[in-house]
Amino acid sequence: MTAQRPTVVHVAIIDSGANVPHPHLPSVADGIAFDVDGGASGDVVDRLGHGTAAAAAIHEKAPDAVLHVVKVFDRELATTVATLVRAIDWATERGCRVVNLSLGTPNAFRATELAPAIERAAERGSIVVSAFAMDGRRWYPGSMGGVVGVVMDPDQPRDEVHVIDFEGKEVLRAAPWPRPVPGLPRERNLNGISFAVANATGVLARVLAGAPEARTARAALALLRGRTPPSPGGH
């Protein structure tokens, strides 16, 4: 019986851009930047370091994934829902299998604005991964149907995720730590729900390479339920 060959998984990272080459991130396939005024450009320089760290965490766990940068943050981690919608649509129109959206909004009324983009993502076979909750509040689109929501657990190993029931919904539990920087205590490095999402995306991208039929949030959770795929290199 012939083993199924892994498929190439394309991952869009909606964040603050990416600086490459970087010791933890050798390259990305391409990128685009959207500003809050509706403009688009090729300036994906990461002035915050946040997007680079998120992309590096994904690359660490899924080194064969093809990464696409979608910059929506420039000098602060703030944007508009309209900009997020444009970013999600850009990624799903190009067939990205996974869309990593580290943040979102705690404002429930924004769900109606985000819903069409999430529905289009599902129709195109793209899986959106986003923060489910933070500081006791649900976030959107991470807590919406059709999205893989993520919660953080500081005691979770960085190379593992677990499917758990959280507030009546299956979500992924992941560690909030990015790739370690030698000599820097992890508490002093960037950390939080954004990196729990990135770690979850990396593990998911790795397992999706062997499951080309999995094209929905439900299928993704089913693949990860009760197990974590082997780390790159088998360790």
Structural description of this entry:
This protein is α/β, with parallel strands linked by helices and 235 residues long. The protein has a domain at 77-228: Peptidase S8/S53 domain (Rossmann fold, 3-Layer(aba) Sandwich). It is 26% helix and 21% strand. It has five helices and eleven strands, in the order E-E-E-H-E-H-E-H-E-E-E-E-E-E-H-H. It has a nine-stranded mixed sheet, sandwiched between helices. A two-stranded antiparallel sheet has the order 7-8. Helix 1 runs parallel beside helix 4 and helix 2 (81-93) runs parallel beside helix 3. The protein is globular, with a radius of gyration of 16 Å.
Mean pLDDT equals 92
CATH top level of the domain at 77-228 is Alpha Beta
- Count of DSSP-assigned helices: 5
The count of β-strands is: 11
Q: What is the straight-line distance between the termini?
A: 26 Å
The name of the CATH superfamily of the domain at 77-228 reads Peptidase S8/S53 domain
Q: Outline, from the CA principal axes?
A: globular
- List segments where confidence is low: pLDDT < 50 over at least 5 consecutive residues: none
How much of the sequence lies in strands comes to: 15-25%
Order of SSEs, N→C? Answer: EEEHEHEHEEEEEEHH
Short description:
This protein is of the alpha/beta class and 235 residues long. The chain has helices at 50-61, 81-93, 111-123, 193-208, 217-224; strands spanning 10-15, 30-34, 40-41, 66-71, 98-101, 127-131, 133-134, 137-138, 147-152, 162-166, 169-174. It contains five helices and eleven strands; from the N terminus they run βββαβαβαββββββαα.
